[in-house]
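Entry:
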Amino acid sequence: MSRAFVKEQDVVEDLPDRLISEHANLVTREGLAHIEAQVRRLSAEHAAAQGAEDRAAVTAAARELRYWSSRAASAEVVTPPEGGGRVHFGSTVTIERSSGRKQTFRFVGEDEAEPAKGTIPYVAPLARALSGKEVGDVIRFAEDEIEVLAVE
């Protein structure tokens, strides 16, 4: 059939794949569980969209399913070392900025990071700057001076 006879609303554009980070896909155990839950949820959504013959929903779900399946396949679970007192992947770090503002962050994988909930990706500039530091260490970060107050 000629495309001239296809309703415009029936045409579904393929969505480009989501970009995959160039960094190692380090995750916590919780991060891996989150990724696996996304794959299960999206598999169900994809199947439901196929059953409903909703081409737009099939396309969208397939795109997300490809992304999360890829992330599940490349995930490397990192178990934080016991004690040690140094900032590392999985650490919860409390810092004090030169302004006196105190903040606490946990350094996690890229897909599990939610800055509003206190988790930031291990590849974020602040996480990289603090990596390997200990309680009492002071770093210069942009225009700020930051002291490490606690590492858990």
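Strands lie at 26-27, 76-77, 92-97, 102-108, 119-121, 138-141, 144-151.
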